[in-house]
Design brief:
about 30% strand; about 240 residues; single chain; about 20% helix; two-stranded antiparallel sheet; alpha/beta; nine-stranded mixed β-sheet; Rossmann fold; globular; binds zinc ion
Length: about 240
């Protein structure tokens, strides 16, 4: 019998420990996938989660135990292929109660995955993320000011910080987002972070996080850790808990 990741690992001091699966996908042309995998797996562990790295988004239909048992998924990619059926399976898992944190390019999907007849891809509909332009990443490596705009347990202790980073010019389709932060860019303010609670799940998108310059930034690290803890339901909904 195959032992599922988490059968024993979740027990810590007699209490269940929640788990995170940090998934990277794509080709590392513009983004350091190995570095991201390492950095975000360590951040998930710092968040108090039993964290494990994984490669490839084609894992959500009929998921193996290592995927099915995770309480929260973190996605980071560089044009990773994410077939519509796999996206829909992830949506179903999240709506059923999983957490999802998509960082930076994690929602920038390969054009080959787009076969929805003009409708938003399921991952984008779940996040409320709109892929505006293949070349929409802006201000990579420049000082980027992130301004927190809402009180929430994800943004606790943070007000405004600057990172050398890139972010994505995203347009939000849905009206039930809560935008938590904006990035000040030459093109004007861009939503830098937003959350939703679809079904029984929790999702969060963070636009920053291009490379090690943000992964090592104390404020970005706090934001990521708090987002993981919220998505994994280690903290309460909204600005409580
Ligand atoms: Zn980037």
């Amino acid at each position: 019998m195959t032992r599922a990741f988490g059968d024993d690992d979740r027990a810590e001091g007699g209490k269940l420990q929640r788990s995170a699966l940090v998934i990277v996908s794509g080709d590392d042309h513009h983004h350091d996938l190995f570095g991201a995998s390492s950095a975000f797996t360590l951040l998930a562990a710092e968040a108090g989660l039993a964290a494990r790295p994984a490669v490839g988004f084609k894992r959500f239909t009929n998921p193996l135990p290592g995927t099915a048992s995770a309480d929260v998924y973190l996605l980071y990619s560089d044009g990773g292929e994410f077939p519509i059926a796999q996206q829909q399976a992830l949506v179903d898992l999240v709506r059923g109660g999983k957490g999802l944190l998509v960082v930076h390019s994690g929602a920038r999907l390969s054009p080959t995955t787009q076969s929805t007849g003009g409708l938003p891809m399921p991952l984008h509909a779940l996040l409320g993320y709109k892929q505006v332009d293949e070349r929409s990443e802006i201000v990579v490596g420049c000082p980027l000011t992130i301004e927190i705009s809402a009180k929430h347990c994800v943004t606790r202790g943070l007000a405004r910080f600057e990172v050398r980073d890139g972010t994505w010019a995203t347009a939000i389709d849905d009206v039930d987002h809560q935008v938590l932060a904006y990035a000040r860019t030459p093109a004007g303010p861009v939503p830098a972070m937003y959350v939703r609670e679809p079904g029984d799940g929790r999702v969060c998108y963070i636009g920053a996080g291009h490379d090690r310059r943000s992964w090592g930034d104390p404020a970005f690290r706090s934001l990521t850790i708090q987002a993981l803890r919220w998505a994994a339901r280690l903290t309460g909904s909204g600005d409580g808990g």
